[in-house]
Amino acid sequence: MSSSNLSASLGPLAGLKVLEMGQLIAGPFAAKTLADFGADVIKVEPPGAGDPLRKWRLLKDGTSVWWQVQSRNKRSVALDLKDTAAQEIVRKLASESDVLIENFRPGALEGWGLGPDVLLAANPRLIVLRVSGYGQTGPYRDRPGFGVVAEAMGGLRHLTGEPGHVPVRVGISIGDTLAALHGVIGILIALQERHRSGLGQVIDVALYEAVFNCMESLLPEYSAFGAVRGPAGSALPGIAPSNAYLCRDGGYALIAGNGDSIFRRLMAVIGRADLAADPALADNAGRVARVAELDAAIGTWTVQRDVKEVLAALDEVGVPAGRIYTVADIAADPHYQARGMLDGVTMDDGTKLTVPGVVPKLSRTPGGHRRNAPAIGQDTGAVLTEIGLTPDQIAELKRRGVVAGGTQ
Q: Based on the domain organization, do 190 and 317 belong to the same domain?
């Protein structure tokens, strides 16, 4: 369903009220995911500069285009959380919310008198998602934790790059995003449990744990064999053949021929029937033992062909393969377009912007782009009116600098 058809659609999470407190990536990404599916997300950000993400990376008319993705479908309320009046507003908002999301350093909410004990006492049904670098407990809880550090501590950074070289960083904030997605899972689990108990609870997500949870067999291999997995470049250790292979035009073909029947089809295509028939290569263990030989055979075939030719030949016989996409490739790809992953939106100034579509795809109640990302405090007046403040009270709070933004 396109964005234009979603304007009147409420979404599967319609009626869920979410209070977002935090900034940058992890907490806001979790809230964005809920907002995409119809939750009413009220984002609290400081007056003045607002969320720092507004100024990250490439700017259009002074605001990051990333902001249009991270804060779509949200409402913005600008509050100075150091002020007791603002803290009371948050308590009121939380008392009427289903979910509160925060990713401040542990103890920050408590310092403002907004700890989960206080909020849950006033609203026992509240679900509180707390995202931090190291979690709310443990000896590292008070350390500042950013995604890049969490990715390293979680085991990911050690596995990236080429053997013998400096481990490279994944080119996006993957630790924050993984934590956000774990947070969304936790919220949905807690909502399901609340149907039975009628009670909320606290969800404690640590960035490093979200990364660690995706490390597959890393720990049991160490426990059982003392094996410390290291970086393997473009290959997938212990699974063969699966690698990036140089082609004649200088590009690379990513080929995953590690299924038993797939391997035999791959060998047939590259003209190596002898390897396809070798009983020692009939399963993954045998192929791993001879992975260098297999990579050399495949590479000899690919280097004589352009990437397009390689992919066409492999697609014809059902061998999983692909090329390395740039964002320009993504923007031009017909499959992305057909799947609704290139969402065209009209910004408030009338200009067009392409942003990622919504994931996952729901057949009957899909998510989508219902509202552009807000200006700082754009919805302050409307939200404060909803919780019972009068226009005079709002005006006085604005005069004192406690709140900022729109009056309606």
A: no
d(CA 186, CA 401): 36
239 vs 30: CA distance, rounded Å: 33
Q: How much is the average pLDDT of 135-158?
A: 94
Strand order in the sheet with 40-45: 202-206, 127-132, 99-102, 17-21, 40-45, 74-79, 403-404
Any domain includes 97:
yes
pLDDT 10s digits, 391-404? 999 999 999 999 99
- Within this chain, do residues 180 and 128 fall inside the same structural domain, yes or no? yes
Say whether both 82 and 143 belong to one domain.
Answer: yes
Residue 245 to residue 323: CA distance in whole angstroms? 10
Domain that holds residue 388: 3-214+334-404
Cα 125 to the center of its chain, rounded Å:
26
Q: Give the span between the Cα atoms of 385 and 381, in whole angstroms.
A: 6
C-beta atoms surrounding 294 within 10 Å = 24
Are 8 and 163 spatial neighbours (Cβ–Cβ below 8 Å)?
no
Catalytic residue among 51, 176, 295, 379: 176
Query: Is 153 found in the same domain as 102?
Result: yes
Q: Which of 168, 172, 321 is nearest to 243 (CA)?
A: 321
As for how many domains the chain has, the answer is 2
Bridge partner list, 77 = 44
Is 118 within a domain? Answer: yes
Are residue 209 and residue 298 in the same domain, yes or no? Answer: no
Asked if 176 is an active-site residue, the reply is yes
Q: For 215-255, what is each residue's pLDDT tens digit?
A: 999 999 999 999 999 998 888 888 999 999 999 999 999 99
Cα–Cα distance, 235 to 225 (Å, whole number): 21
| For residue 31, pLDDT beyond 90 | yes
Query: 144 and 101, same structural domain?
Result: yes
Does residue 191 form part of some domain? Answer: yes
Name the nearest CA neighbour of 129 among 40, 26, 202, 188: 202
